Amino acid sequence: MRRFINICAEIEKTVGHIYQLLSAIPYFEPKIQQMFLTLANDEHDHAQQLDFSLRMPTDIYEDEQLLSMEQAQNLLRKVEKSLKEISGQSLSLIDAVDLGIELEGDFCRIHLNNAVNFKDKNLKKMFSAMARSEELHKQQLLELKTKLDGLNQ
What are the sequence ranges of the domains in the chain? Predict the structure, then answer.
């Protein structure tokens, strides 16, 4: 279980770093840069929450077999690959938004799929809250994409 939470924390940290890079793209409007910076801060907060949960006693975790370990590992590889691809590369705003939408959807699924697999109600709440947060991030990015699509027509 601790391994799963460590992977989830690493995913959150990596995506936070992706959003930090996106917030620093100089040709994005300041409002867009601030949105990506806020997303980065949220992801780093999630990582801290996950790191903090590792301080809890080990008997609060459910059987590790119930967790989507393979799903989490695949997502970690995906976000690490995305980070490498965008490092030192300029993305268009639409590509940046599409990447964020995809990653947030993946996060939401992992958090929701695994929230029920904890014995401890606080861990269940934490994973459910993270899923809601990721869904809000996704909605924010989808709204921006809709605006961008409207401008490009």
Answer: 2-151
Answer yes or no: are the C-beta atoms of 83 and 18 closer than 8 Å.
yes
How crowded is residue 26: how many other Cβ atoms within 10 Å of its Cβ?
6
- More confident of the two residues 6 and 121: 6
Instruction: Identify the CATH number of the domain defined by range 2-151.
Output: 1.20.1260.10
> Any alpha helices (H) in the chain, and if so which ranges?
2-23, 30-53, 69-86, 93-115, 121-151
Q: How distant is the alpha carbon of residue 128 from its chain centre?
A: 13
Residues contacting 108, CB < 8 A, separation 6+: 131, 134, 135, 138
The residue behind tokens 């995906």 is 78
Residue type, 16: G
- Assign residue 131 a region: left if phi > 0, alpha if psi is -120 to 50, beta otherwise? alpha
78-101 pLDDT tens trace: 999 999 989 877 789 999 999 999
CB atoms within 10 A of CB 105: 15
**CA dihedral defined by 89, 13, 105, 41, rounded to 10 degrees?**
-90
Higher model confidence: residue 115 or residue 11?
11
Q: How many residues does the chain have?
A: 153
